[in-house]
Specification:
Blueprint: H1 17-27, E1 31-34, H2 43-53, E2 58-63, H3 68-76, E3 81-84, H4 89-100, E4 105-106, H5 108-121, H6 142-154, H7 161-171, H8 176-183, H9 187-201, H10 206-212
Parallel strand pairs: 1-2, 2-3, 3-4
Helix pairs in contact: 1-2, 2-3, 7-10, 8-9
Length: about 220
C-alpha cells in the first residue's frame, strides 16, 4: 500500500525490533512504521534506540495495543504518532505524511487516554480547609507517578494563556495548521510557540508534551 504511493518509497522491512534498529541506522529512513509486539526487541525499546541515535527519523507506532501504559511508554520512547491497526488506509497514509512533516498524530481513542492522563497530572486548585476530606486519597500508578515527578521537576517557568491553549490543541492531536486556525495565528508563529512550550517543559516530542507536562493552573 505504501509502495504504490508516488511520494513514498519503502526502503526496507524488518522482522523484529533488533533488525529494525540495525536497518534504520543503515538506511536512515525519514519515517519508521513500528509495531510494538515483536520478538528479540519490542517496539518500545526499538523506538527508543532509533530516536536516540537518529533524531531526524520519526517513528509512527501502528499496533493493536491501546493499554494506557503501552501508549505512554511508546510516547516517552519518542514516537511521534500512535495509530491502531483499525485505522483506514487514508488515515494511515495521511499520518505517514504528517509525521514526515514533523507533526504528531493520535487516534481518537489514544487522544482520549492522553487527555485523561493529562487531567490526572494537572494540579488541583487549593480549596478551603476540610475539602480534602471530601475526596478519596489517590495513589498514583507507576506510570502516572513517574510522569508527574518528571513534570514537576522540570517545570521551571509557567505557560502563558496562549501557550496553554496551544498545548491543549497539541494534546488533541492537531497539526500546526489546525492550531493556527483555532487560535488565529500564522502557522510559523505556532511553530515558534510549540518550540517554546517544549523548551519550558523539557519535552523531546510534541506527543510527550501531553503526557509529561503539567499545566500551570491560573485558578479560573
Amino acid at each position: 500500500m505504501l509502495a504504490v504511493e508516488p511520494d513514498i518509497e519503502v526502503v526496507g522491512q524488518a522482522c523484529d525490533g533488533a533488525e529494525a534498529v540495525e536497518m534504520a541506522q543503515q538506511l536512515l529512513p525519514d519515517v519508521v512504521l513500528m509495531d510494538l509486539h515483536m520478538p528479540r526487541m519490542g517496539g518500545v525499546a526499538a523506538t527508543r534506540a532509533i530516536t536516540l541515535s537518529l533524531p531526524r527519523t520519526h517513528v509512527l507506532v501502528l499496533t493493536t495495543l491501546d493499554a494506557e501504559e503501552t501508549v505512554f511508554e511508546a510516547i516517552r520512547a519518542g514516537a511521534h504518532a500512535y495509530l491502531l491497526k483499525d485505522a483506514t488506509e487514508e488515515e494511515l497514509l495521511e499520518t505517514v505524511r504528517a509525521v514526515h512533516r514533523g507533526e504528531s498524530r493520535l487516534t481518537p481513542q489514544i487522544a482520549r487516554k492522553v487527555m485523561d492522563q493529562f487531567r490526572r497530572l494537572a494540579p488541583l486548585p487549593e480549596g478551603p480547609p476540610g475539602d480534602a476530606a471530601l475526596s478519596p486519597a489517590v495513589t498514583p500508578q507507576p506510570v502516572q507517578a513517574a510522569a508527574q515527578t518528571k513534570a514537576q521537576s522540570v517545570m521551571t517557568e509557567p505557560l502563558t494563556d496562549k501557550e496553554e491553549k496551544i498545548l491543549q490543541c497539541i494534546t488533541e492531536g492537531k497539526s500546526n495548521r489546525q492550531i493556527a486556525n483555532a487560535v488565529f495565528l500564522a502557522e510559523g508563529t505556532v511553530k515558534n510557540y510549540v518550540s517554546r512550550i517544549m523548551e519550558k517543559l523539557h519535552a523531546n516530542t510534541r506527543t510527550e508534551l501531553a503526557v509529561m507536562s503539567v499545566r500551570q493552573r491560573r485558578g479560573d
